[in-house]
Amino acid sequence: MNKHQFDVWSINYDETVKKSTEGYPFKGYEKAIQAIYCLIQNDSNTKILDLGIGTGTLTQKLYLEGVRITGVDFSEKMLKQAKQKMPDATLIEYDLKEGIPLVIQNIKFQYIISAYAFHHWEDKQKIDLIKQCADLLTPSGKILIADIMFSTLFDRESCKKQYRNCWDDEEFYILADEFIRTLRSIDLDVKFHPISFCCGILEILVR
Ligand SMILES: C[S@@+](CC[C@H](N)C(=O)[O-])C[C@H]1O[C@@H](n2cnc3c(N)ncnc32)[C@H](O)[C@@H]1O
Questions:
Q1: Most buried residue, 8, 47, 59, 172, by CB count within 10 Å?
Q2: Is the pTM of this model over 0.85?
Q3: Mean pLDDT, each 10-residue run in order, the chain (207 residues)
C-alpha cells in the first residue's frame, strides 16, 4: 500500500481494526498490543520510538503514562490523528524504506516498537531498519515488533490456503524461524512470542 492509500484508510482505520480482529490478518492484534505493554518497563524518563505509528493505537496508553513518544509514519493523515491523541509527541512524516530519519539518528531510546507495519517492507529492508534501530538503543534497550507473522513457511501456506479469498500477496510476512536465524547472524538476540495463528512478537536485544 502506498502513502495515499494509508491517508484514505486513516479515516476509518481505528474502527476497521476493532471490527476485524477475528481472522487473518488481524487475529491477535489486541493481544499483541497488551503483550508489548507487558514487555515494557516505563517511567517518566523512558523514551520510545514507534515505527509506523499510524493513528497511535499502540503508543497512546504509554503516552498517557508519561512516556516520551517519538513516532514515524509516511502518512500525513495517520499522523494527524496521532497528534490529536498525543499532542506533545514528536511525530515525523518520513518513508521508513529510506531508513531512520536523520533528525533522530543521535537520540537513544529504551524501546523501539512497531505494530503491524513491518509487513509492508521486504526482508532486506526490515533487516536494514533493525540494524539501524540497534544503534539507537540504550544499553539495555529492546526492539519489539508485533506483526502478522508465522513460525514457519508451512504455517504461512496453511493460512494462505484457508484465507485464499482475502490473502494479500503484496505484503511480506515474517517467517520467524528464518528471520531469527538472520538476526542472530548479525549479533542480535531474539525471542519469538507467538500470539495467534497469524500474529507474533519479536523481542530483539543487542548482544
Ligand atoms: C497497518 S498500519 C499500523 C498502524 C499502527 N502501528 C497500529 O498498530 O495501529 C501500518 C502503518 O505503517 C505506515 N507505513 C507503511 N509503510 C510505511 C513506510 N514505508 N514508511 C513509513 N510508514 C509506513 C502506514 O502509514 C500505517 O500508518
A1: 59
A2: yes
A3: 94 85 91 96 92 97 96 98 98 98 97 98 97 96 98 97 95 97 96 97 95
Ligand 1 site, residue 10, Cβ cutoff 6 A: no
What's the CA-to-centroid distance between 206 and ligand 1, angstroms?
A: 25
What's the length of the chain? 207
Please report the atom of ligand 1 found closest to the CA of residue 97. Answer: 19
Cβ proximity of 69 and 90 under 8 Å: yes
